[in-house]
From TrEMBL:
A molecular-function term among this protein's GO annotations: DNA-binding transcription factor activity
Residues covered by the HTH tetR-type domain: 26-86
Pfam family, one: TetR_N
InterPro entries cross-referenced by the UniProt entry: Homeodomain-like_sf, HTH-type_TetR-like_transc_reg, HTH_TetR, MT1864/Rv1816-like_C, Tet_transcr_reg_TetR-rel_C_sf
Keyword entries, A-Z: DNA-binding, Transcription, Transcription regulation
UniProt DNA-binding residue ranges: 49-68
Protein name: Transcriptional regulator, TetR family
Length: 213
């Protein structure tokens, strides 16, 4: 049983430097996930371990296993959290953009690229975990954010902005474009401050190239 008092861990170890989120009785799982994501961003997935996470947040080595039986469960939970966050951010961007297809597509593309560049390590983990055998729950989690993209393509076709056809194929072209831009930024081949302008140009060209003839 853990004490109900707030505890801020100051323990440091390889891969976990500096203060970590405060741990309160009853919220160990989100505290572990926050610490794991911080390490993922700084050091990559290979450095993640339940033992080091326990040390980082100041609990016993056995405590994390109440929430994550093994390291694979922790990685899956991180990926699921990422898909949920991406869905929330895309949905908020679409809601703020109004009802017209063009502004909605620009808003969604900008939101996705922000996520893909600011949380690049998390996004890579999300895709890696989603495609492993037996990851049906992650396939379902991914369906929420990418379903928004699919629905937006359908809207563009219904409004006559995009050419009719399989919306999934059209969506793959859009996704490949956005993912390619993110890879250029993450690989330091394109300066981050150019991201917004490139995204706008890419979406404009996508609409022109996909316009109903």
């Amino acid at each position: 049983m853990y004490a109900a008092t707030t505890m801020l861990a100051t323990t440091t170890s390889p891969g976990y430097h500096g203060p970590v989120p405060a741990y309160h009785h009853g919220n160990l799982r989100p505290t572990l996930l926050a610490a794991a994501e911080r390490s993922l961003r700084q050091h990559g997935a290979e450095q993640l371990s339940l033992r080091e996470l326990a040390r980082a947040v100041g609990v016993s080595h056995a405590a994390p296993r109440r929430h994550f039986p093994d390291r694979q469960a922790l990685l899956d939970a991180l990926a699921e959290t990422g898909f949920a966050r991406l869905h929330t951010q895309l949905r908020a961007a679409l809601a703020a953009a109004g009802g017209d297809f063009g502004p909605r597509l620009h808003a969604m593309a900008a939101a996705y690229l922000r996520f893909a560049t600011e949380d690049a390590a998390l996004l890579e983990l999300m895709f890696t975990r989603k495609h492993r055998p037996g990851a049906d729950h992650l396939v379902e989690a991914a369906a929420a954010p990418f379903g928004l993209m699919h629905d937006l393509i359908v809207q563009g076709q219904a409004q006559g902005v995009l050419e009719a056809g399989d919306p999934e194929r059209v969506g793959i072209v859009l996704f490949a474009t956005l993912q390619g831009i993110a890879m250029l930024v993450n690989g330091n081949l394109v300066a981050p401050e150019l991201l917004d302008g490139i995204a706008q140009t890419a979406v404009d060209q996508f609409i022109r190239g996909s316009r109903r003839r």
